[in-house]
Amino acid sequence: QQGWVINISSRAGVFPGPGPYSDDVPKMRAFMYAATKAAVERLTQALAVEYQDQGISFNCLSPTGRIRTPGNVFGMTKPGATPEPFEEAIAMGKSAVFICSQDPKTFTGNILFDDATVETYHL
């Protein structure tokens, strides 16, 4: 028996890092979102420890930028929204296929950023 669980996180789970902070660090004003994404990453690693012997891998995939979703598109229409380019979802898909092609007993507990995974493993 084997299986793969891929949770989705965000760079918000690690941003902005330790302080002190300069004035040019953007204020996210989304601390609950960031906290839950960090929790998803820790939960992923805790489950990886629990289920490794059963052949079930738990990994977390984090998009590097904003993926074009209805919520993100709507958010860009708000007054004062900073226009940012959307990331294509293809890197997430390639990374997910890569994760599921690995041995679940040895490739588990990873927090992977989609663009870095594509580049590192030449996907």
Describe the structure.
With 123 residues, the protein is α/β, with parallel strands linked by helices. The protein has a single domain (3-13, 31-120), classed as NAD(P)-binding Rossmann-like Domain (Rossmann fold). Helices cover 37% and strands 13% of the residues. It has four helices and three strands; from the N terminus they run βαβααβα. A three-stranded parallel sheet has the order 1-2-3, with helices on both faces. β1 (3-8), α1 (31-51) and β2 form a beta-alpha-beta unit. The longest helix is centred in the middle third of the chain and has 21 residues, at 31-51. The radius of gyration is 16 Å and the shape is globular. It starts with a strand and ends with a helix. The mean pLDDT is 86.
Write the CATH fold name: Rossmann fold
Helix content: 25-40%
Summarize the helix and strand pattern as letters: EHEHHEH
- Which residue ranges are poorly predicted, with pLDDT under 50 across at least 5 consecutive positions? none
Measured by DSSP, the beta-strand proportion falls in 5-15%
Under the CATH scheme, the architecture is 3-Layer(aba) Sandwich
The number of distinct structural domains comes to 1
- Major sheet size, sense and barrel closure: 3 strands, parallel
Class of secondary structure makeup: alpha/beta
Identify the CATH homologous superfamily.
NAD(P)-binding Rossmann-like Domain
| Rg, nearest Å | 16 Å
Mean pLDDT: 86
Biggest sheet: strand arrangement:
1-2-3
Number of strands: 3
